[in-house]
Specification:
By secondary structure, this protein is an all-alpha fold. The protein has one domain: Up-down Bundle (Growth Hormone, Chain: A), CATH 1.20.1250. Helices cover 74% and strands 1% of the residues. The chain has 22 helices and two strands. The chain has a two-stranded antiparallel ribbon. The protein is globular, with a radius of gyration of 23 Å. 50% of the residues are buried.
């Protein structure tokens, strides 16, 4: 670890020495190249490549394309009400709630002697098949459509768990680079989402939602390729009779860690901060596309709005990386949560048509709203991700990080279902939006509630250990499987 810190200092000194030669525009271009080079040298190029493929292509690009196509698929093909779509979107995310299951399997149950490669390949094939079913079936029943969407979501979640294990392990062995690794994940995801959202509206208009589902079979195909070219150590002398014992050991380690106040308190805050922030996105989407009460945005405009939101998310990552990554968690969360609640009122201005009274067009105000909201949301999310990596005990990093992320998804599921119920109570339908402003106002006020729970977050920053020293030194989790070095072999070497 000391060698890594020294090399990092040397790298930063080299950057400082070269910066006078790379001033202005070329300096801005050279800085991220040096940053990628530093991460590749410190963490190995295969790790950087894996993050880019899973976060950038599978999650960023794939989710960017699927978000708009799924919205129109539910609205136009399945003829759902906004409250129903809100609930069904929550159901699609259930595979992310059970992420600890995928984490336990990848950490404790190797397949044919490998614990990473087979899960990448399985996740990719699951995504390819589910997207092709949605694309090729003409009149798919709602139940089978939801099942296919859940299968595609499960494929993305399984691949996410596998790469998360690598991120978390490197965050423990290279604590000074924990913020940089989360920035790499955020940058890959945001850039991929920007490309996906930018193309989504155009593709939905050109080939329809089902045609987009056909295109969405490509990202999981790349995940299959990742699994095929991955090189990792073979697990020797493994007997499947010991699987139950290893699962029990992993469960005990997780339970012991969760009982630690330094762990369960931040977990509780993560859940509450998401659960109380009521989600009414589907209600806003139906209003956006309504020809009478709303601005009647086209597919291209909806895609552009999401794309601008991805730009805002990318800006949030850059702001955190360059200005906020070394600040205490609690300080960042206070201001970001406060601004997140205030940004919700922008929707209120739009729905009440106040922007038109000042001569601001709907599209211009909508994209500003999307950019600001996603930027603040990303800044709020980044310190929680960094904190999550510091709560994982050695040996079961991937499993425990998956558990933490599942807590977040339970919070988002609660938020989505609560929003759907509230839209139903307010009688917001496909054509009636008179009470939508009430939902927006209540949601914005609820976003301020997590400020009262900030005492659950440690006062320390990302450069300090969160787990007690005795947990960091424990070797219990390491008995699950011998640690190995996961590398990405090139296509040339694999042939």
């Amino acid at each position: 670890m000391r060698d890594a810190e020294e090399s990092l200092q040397v790298g930063s000194q080299n950057q400082n020495q070269e910066s006078p030669k790379k001033m202005g525009f070329w300096g801005l271009l050279w800085t991220p190249i040096l940053w990628f080079k530093m991460l590749s040298e410190e963490l190995h190029w295969s790790f950087v490549l894996g993050v880019v493929v899973v976060y950038g292509v599978s999650q960023g690009l794939g989710v960017g394309l699927s978000r708009v196509s799924t919205l129109y698929y539910m609205k136009d093909e399945q003829k759902m009400q906004p409250s129903e779509a809100q609930v069904y979107f929550g159901i699609i995310q259930i595979p992310w709630v059970v992420k600890p299951l995928w984490g336990l399997l990848t950490d404790t149950v190797p397949i044919l002697g490998y614990r990473r490669r087979p899960y990448f390949i399985s996740a990719g094939f699951l995504g390819v098949i589910s997207m092709l079913v949605l694309s090729l079936h003409k009149k798919l029943h709602l139940g089978f459509a939801l099942l296919s969407l859940m299968a595609g979501s499960a494929g993305i979640a399984i691949a996410d768990v596998t790469i998360d294990a690598c991120v978390t392990q490197n965050s423990i062995t290279h604590p000074s680079l924990a913020g940089d690794m989360q920035s790499l994940c955020g940058l890959s995801s945001s850039i991929g989402a920007l490309v996906g959202f930018s193309l989504s509206g155009f593709f939905v208009h050109l080939i329809g939602p089902k045609g987009v589902f056909g295109l969405l079979s490509i990202p999981p195909g790349l995940v299959v390729l990742v699994g095929m070219v991955m090189r990792e150590s073979h697990v020797h002398n493994f007997t499947y009779r010991r699987v139950s014992e290893k699962l029990l050991d992993a469960s005990k380690t997780m339970w012991t860690t969760l009982k630690c106040p330094d762990v369960w308190r931040p977990c509780l805050y993560m859940y509450l901060s998401l659960a109380v922030s009521m989600n009414i996105n589907e209600g806003m989407f139906y209003w956006y596309t309504d020809a009478k009460g709303g601005p009647s945005f086209s597919q291209e405009v909806i895609g552009s709005t999401f794309a601008v939101g991805a730009v805002g998310s990318l800006l949030g990552v850059l702001i955190y990386q360059n200005f906020l990554k070394n600040h205490p968690f609690r300080d960042i969360l206070f201001w970001s949560q406060f601004l997140f609640g205030a940004s919700g009122l922008l929707d209120l201005v739009l729905v009440l048509r106040i922007n038109l009274k000042f001569g601001v067009p709907d599209f211009f105000f909508a994209v500003i709203d999307a950019a600001v909201t996603h930027m603040i949301g990303r800044i709020k999310w980044m310190p929680l991700l960094v904190l999550s990596t510091k709560l994982c005990p050695p040996g079961i990093e991937g499993t425990f990080f998956a558990l933490l992320m599942s807590i977040d998804h339970v919070g988002m599921l609660s938020s989505s279902w609560a929003g759907g119920l509230f839209l139903h109570i307010l009688k917001v339908t496909r054509t009636q939006f008179e009470n939508l402003w009430i939902a927006i106002l209540v949601r914005s006020l609820l976003r301020l509630v997590p400020l009262g729970f900030l005492y659950l977050i440690p006062r320390s920053g990302p450069n300090f250990s969160t787990l007690p020293t005795e947990m960091l030194r424990t070797k219990k989790g390491n008995t699950i499987l011998e640690p190995d070095t996961v590398e990405m072999a090139s296509l040339v070497n694999s042939t």
